[in-house]
Amino acid sequence: MSSELITIRGETDGSAASGVVPLDCDLFQSTVSYFRIPKGMTAKIWFKKISGEGETLFTLKYTYDCTVASPSWKNIQQEKLASKGEIALEKRRPEILRSLNGTEAFQITWSQPTAAKAYIEVGVEIE
Amino acid sequence: MDKVVDELGLCPESGFLTCFIPALGKALVFRVKSRVNRRYEVLHYGPLPLTSGTTLPTYEGGSVSVPANGVIPARAYTKDGLTFPTTLSVYDKNDMWYLPTDDRDRLFHVIQYVTPAFLRIDVQIPTGVSQGRFQKDRVTTGVDKDFGFSRGTYEIVHLPGIRYGYRYGNDTNVNLYTSVKFTYGEYIIEIPRNSNLIFDILTRRAQSHWITLPINYTDPSITRALTETYGIEGFPVYRQDERDRAIREYESLLGGVKI
Question: Do A28 and B171 touch (CB under 8 A)?
Answer without folding.
Answer: no
